[in-house]
Amino acid sequence: DLIVHVRDITHPETILQKATVLSVLKNLNLPRHLLDSMVEVHNKADLIERYKPTEENALAISALHGHGLDELKEEMEKKILTATGKKILTLNINLEGPQLSWLYKEATVQEIEVMPEDGTARVKVIISNSAFGRYKNLFPN
């Protein structure tokens, strides 16, 4: 669903390496949308003072120090959700009904926050658009 191209931005041949990787990927006859949505990551940015990527959509990170990893995770999550037609939602459900069981079967439940005072819960899920449509039809409230 996603290609992440990680480059050692300090390597003297980093631009040539990028060209070589892109050439190989193009020769694999991958779907165009996969190449177009590729995430380019410039690693070891901590070794270059005030490094900022000049290439569009490139992210600078330092795997050693953890800099930029949250942004990389967010970008990867966003692109994977787009590519798979899914979304992350937080739904308020009644725990006495069948909603939670349905969500466990039809979606990926990530978090549950139970409100015992009123028998409800906030449920964070990853769900496809079609499954969410079915959910809304089954549980209109």
UniProtKB/TrEMBL annotation:
One Pfam family this sequence matches: HflX_C
Occurrences of domain Hflx-type G (ranges): 1-84
SUPFAM superfamilies given in the database record: P-loop containing nucleoside triphosphate hydrolases
Entry GO CC: cytoplasm
GO molecular function terms listed in the Swiss-Prot or TrEMBL record: GTP binding; ribosome binding
Highest taxon of source: Eukaryota
Entry-linked Gene3D superfamilies: P-loop containing nucleotide triphosphate hydrolases
InterPro entries: G_HFLX_dom, GTPase_HflX, HflX_C, P-loop_NTPase
Listed PANTHER family: GTP-BINDING PROTEIN 6-RELATED, GTP-BINDING PROTEIN HFLX
Record's protein name: GTPB6 protein
